TrEMBL record, chains A, B:
Pfam families: OsmC (PF02566). The lineage of its organism: Bacteria, Bacillati, Actinomycetota, Actinomycetes, Pseudonocardiales. Signal peptide: none annotated. It comes from Pseudonocardia xishanensis. InterPro entries: KH_dom-like_a/b (IPR015946), OsmC/Ohr_fam (IPR003718), OsmC/Ohr_hydroprdx_reductase (IPR052924), OsmC/Ohrsf (IPR036102). This is OsmC family protein.
Length: 191, 191
């Protein structure tokens, strides 16, 4: 019995629950609509803080999280801050790294590939002439490009491991969001 | 003398340093090329961790940061995790909130607007039928849309405060990156 239960866990993912979730979504697609959230408060200068907890899933507000998290953002001295936290651009790179990693780990679990290690390095090029308004003709505000290198090992041949990474990329929420863009509606309330 | 020094600080931003930085970039545009970085390691299942510290700026590796940060990402139970941290999609919302906030605070400082408070709420719509591969015809992997509401108060009329937020949006690195997308190059190394 223990052996049977353990057999469903692969790469730390319960594949029985994974396949049951996929079946549930196929049977009732409306449960797949999620709403994720963050609230942010300015502390001072380049320092601000987000709180993350609530989200909507499976046609209801999720109640499984008893505690949330706070995340501090800042800027280094050269960008007029005091390193109160990673800066927003660095948080974007982290979001991308984390999402591709989780997607590929889940993909490997679904395909029966046991992974030994996954790590990644990311670097984004940004010319601040755009964001600082110095030269907005030649430079955009955002990253010009991002490079990501994933190093992976596991119980499959190199070509299969490569496919696992590519599948993770192709199913990643943040990869798609950053690669192809997302419409953002901004409202302003003056208090 | 103290009064003169204090006069340059607005919204926690040293505007004298800000304008000196802008002048330095105008005089020597190549110092505006930044490279931001993150490295990520898979821990198990939906749990992975990024380290953030080094970056390149002003034609050299920055050495001002003595310590960096680690950021843990996870997934809630409904997405097969154990809430090891905010999930990657939530980190993306935080990056967006933090960047628009810092951009608008800096913009207000440059324009002589003293802010009293800034807060924001963000919500992103995501149908996981795409990312889970259940229905990739009708649903993308990434966020369908993101809504952001900024609440702001300060020593300027509502219309001016609104312009400050819009200026912050229009100069934000992460807003532009997410709204318009960034080319991402992914390399794979099998170990």
């Amino acid at each position: 019995m223990t052996e049977t239960v353990n057999d469903t866990i692969r790469n730390g993912v319960d594949t029985a629950t994974m396949f049951a979730t996929l079946d549930a979504i196929k049977a009732q697609p409306e449960i797949a609509a999620f709403k994720f959230r963050a609230t942010n408060t300015w502390i001072g200068g380049s320092h601000n803080r987000s709180s993350i907890k609530s989200f909507y899933a499976a046609c209801a507000e999720d109640t499984s999280r008893t505690e949330g998290w706070t995340l501090d953002a800042g800027e280094p001295a050269i960008l007029l801050g005091a390193d109160e936290g990673p800066n927003p651009a660095e948080y974007l790179l982290h979001a991308l790294a984390a999402c591709v990693t989780t997607s590929l780990v889940y993909s490997a679990a679904a395909r029966g590939v046991r992974l030994t290690s996954v790590s990644s390095t990311l670097e984004g090029d940004l010319d601040v002439q755009g964001a600082m308004g110095v030269n907005t003709e030649d430079y955009r505000n955002g990253f010009e490009r991002i490079r990501m290198t994933v190093t992976i090992s596991g119980d499959a041949p190199p070509e299969k491991l490569r496919q696992v990474v590519e599948r993770g990329r192709d199913r990643s929420v943040v990869f798609d969001s950053v690669m192809h863009g997302v419409p953002i509606e901004l409202d302003v309330v003056t208090a």
